[in-house]
């Protein structure tokens, strides 16, 4: 609005402003309230959906660990229909199940699916770390190396380099394997992993 010098002019200006813009303001207020209500509804809906997903995951997970006949099928269905962290957990559990059964093809399928369900960097690193190990088991060495590039974060360095060394050794690259194992040791891993990496380095020298 313009600047007015007298109180009456200011009052008249306000009246004209609301006369000209009152409808638009009213619509804006209504839209704002609706948007706020929609936001609260969305939050409530999301929380309810996650609570239901958690309960469904627990049920499907228990069916698998209890070796029920439809345990695998039910957990697979859950993983396919839940694009959230619970879907990732389901796919990871299925992958472990298939690895134990030496079914690396289906394990890779589950882990690939899990990698598409999360943007959480730490969870994604876990998925890709396991995927690379499964690809190594299938002798998909170049795929495994590409997958390992997606295992990020200082906490994953030693584990990532250990698998990288295994893959490079399988490719016949002894020097590359030695460098990878050494990098793993330099990242100050756990005592157990230190022992494993040193053992692998010693085996390269023998």
List its traits.
mainly alpha; chaperone; Serine Threonine Protein Phosphatase 5, Tetratricopeptide repeat; TPR-like_helical_dom_sf; 9 helices; 206 residues
- Strand fraction band? under 5%
Mean pLDDT: 77
Structural class: mainly alpha
What level of helicity do the residues show? over 70%
The number of domains: 1
Low-confidence stretches: 1-7, 21-47
CATH architecture: Alpha Horseshoe
Q: What is the radius of gyration?
A: 28 Å
The span between the termini is 87 Å
Number of helices: 9
Secondary-structure element pattern, one letter each: HHHHHHHHH
Q: Would you count the extended β strands for me?
A: 0
Describe it.
This is Ancillary SecYEG translocon subunit. It is a single chain. The chain is mainly α and 206 residues long. The protein has a single domain, classed as Tetratricopeptide repeat domain (Serine Threonine Protein Phosphatase 5, Tetratricopeptide repeat, Alpha Horseshoe), CATH 1.25.40. It is 80% helix and 0% strand. Helix 5 (121-137) packs antiparallel against helix 6.
Question: In a nutshell, what does this entry contain?
Answer:
GO terms for molecular function: protein-containing complex binding. It is built from nine helices and no strands. It is an all-alpha fold and 206 residues long.
Topology:
Layout: H1 7-65, H2 71-81, H3 85-100, H4 104-115, H5 121-137, H6 141-148, H7 157-170, H8 174-186, H9 191-205
């Amino acid at each position: 609005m313009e600047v007015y010098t007298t109180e009456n002019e200011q009052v008249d200006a306000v009246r004209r402003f609301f006369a000209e813009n009152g409808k638009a303001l009213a619509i804006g207020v209504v839209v704002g309230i609706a948007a706020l209500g929609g936001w609260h509804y969305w939050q409530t809906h999301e929380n309810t959906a996650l609570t239901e997903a958690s309960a469904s995951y627990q049920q499907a997970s228990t069916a698998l660990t209890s070796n029920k006949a439809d345990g695998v099928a039910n957990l697979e269905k859950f993983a396919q229909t839940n694009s959230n962290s619970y879907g990732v957990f389901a796919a990871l559990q299925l992958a472990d199940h298939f690895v134990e059964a030496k079914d690396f093809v289906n394990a890779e399928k589950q882990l690939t699916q899990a990698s598409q369900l999360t943007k959480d960097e730490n969870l994604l690193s876990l998925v890709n770390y396991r995927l690379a190990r499964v690809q190594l088991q299938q002798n998909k060495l170049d795929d495994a190396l590409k997958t390992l590039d997606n295992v990020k974060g200082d906490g994953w360095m030693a584990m990532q380099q250990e698998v990288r060394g295994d893959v490079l050794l399988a490719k016949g690259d002894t020097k590359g394997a030695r460098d990878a194992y050494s990098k793993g040791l330099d990242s100050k891993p756990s005592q157990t992993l230190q022992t494993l990496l040193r053992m692998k380095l010693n085996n390269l020298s023998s």
